[in-house]
Amino acid sequence: MARLSFREQVLRVREDAIVTAVNRLLAEKGFDLMTVDEVAGEVGIAKASLYKHFSSKEALAAAAMVRLMERTLAVVEQQRARTETSAVQRLEAVTRWALQLQLAGEMPSLPSQNSSLRAELLAHQTYLDLLVRVSDHLGAWIVQAQAEGDLDNSFPPEVVLYTVFARACDPVPGFLKASGQHSDEQIVDWVLAVCMNGLRGGTKPAAKSLPQAAAV
Amino acid sequence: MARLSFREQVLRVREDAIVTAVNRLLAEKGFDLMTVDEVAGEVGIAKASLYKHFSSKEALAAAAMVRLMERTLAVVEQQRARTETSAVQRLEAVTRWALQLQLAGEMPSLPSQNSSLRAELLAHQTYLDLLVRVSDHLGAWIVQAQAEGDLDNSFPPEVVLYTVFARACDPVPGFLKASGQHSDEQIVDWVLAVCMNGLRGGTKPAAKSLPQAAAV
DNA sequence: GTCTATAGCCAGATAGAC
DNA sequence: GTCTATCTGGCTATAGAC
Fold first, then answer.
1. Cα separation of A137 and A114, whole Å?
2. pTM of the model
């Protein structure tokens, strides 16, 4: 890795701050309601300066999604290194992390209907590459978990994969949090339990199951 | 019910056509990307004429949501009349209907973040009344199903209710449909199975005994 | 109530000085 | 690369004739 000049480091730090602001605003208001003025205001620079770093609002969103995928891949790799855990446990750990990220207000969400945004993402090689790597790892765990009887093997792997991905934009945690009656940890446990129980299906009997938690 | 004059009937039919167009466009593009010009174009009238019927874009969306709630309540009442079915079966039937509606491209979706839209809906007495009636019926079924052992009673009823409601905007059916490899019926079966299996429960998530993924 | 035409506004993007 | 100031287009909403 070549050393960066001082100016390049400053550039990096600034762009990092921009992406952080975009990430937060995307999580808070979504793409359509986020304005470029807000991003500039949060970073503390002029809007025109933003456009020296990113060529469009869509490019800003894409940069935030790239960072999300990098973070996700890091979590996946971390779980991959934990050789003592089963495939379904790794899958569950990554899903738990995603739910925690969402409840923390750091999960950027994009409208899947916006076509200009879709085009930008589908043309973004780095993003696509990261997405494929994450999907491949998760997909391998899914197939393995199905073979081990930990996930219902009557579901096509893509059904399981999409279901796991969809936890990133699940509205249920937000609703439960808005009711103000439960801790974040409790909310994550419930949503994760619904998700994993649903994917486990009827395949797996009690052989490997944990002791039943007492009903609360 | 008073008889309607001819002019009033014409008005009804026209407004019905407007709401139908709004409903379809909300399902296709969502609130932000839907323009009032498009609605007028689809109905075949001038935009100014639209504003004689509905005072704002938000009011248009609210009207579509009222119709959705009316349709939902009708389905709920229909299930309520089927005395031979159990509570969990009725809950599943309503959820299935919602998934089918979504796959048919007739499920309007609103951004929960838009504040002006939220305000309009929360001030709309008819909408709120319908929402409460639907929630009450579903809530009663949930409690009953938990008592009968058909749903995991360690989940608070609101967790179950929100999970069922969230199927209306679940992105998984759309992703599976986009892959083009499965029939709508098959997709509904899978998503519904994941949902109901998850709520039925039986075992607790394994990851609860695992160390949490470190923040990255 | 329907239309054409337009007002008013806001947000994305750019020009040009420094 | 940063700024201020401005352009541009598209959208909601309305005026006013018929």
1. 28
2. 0.93
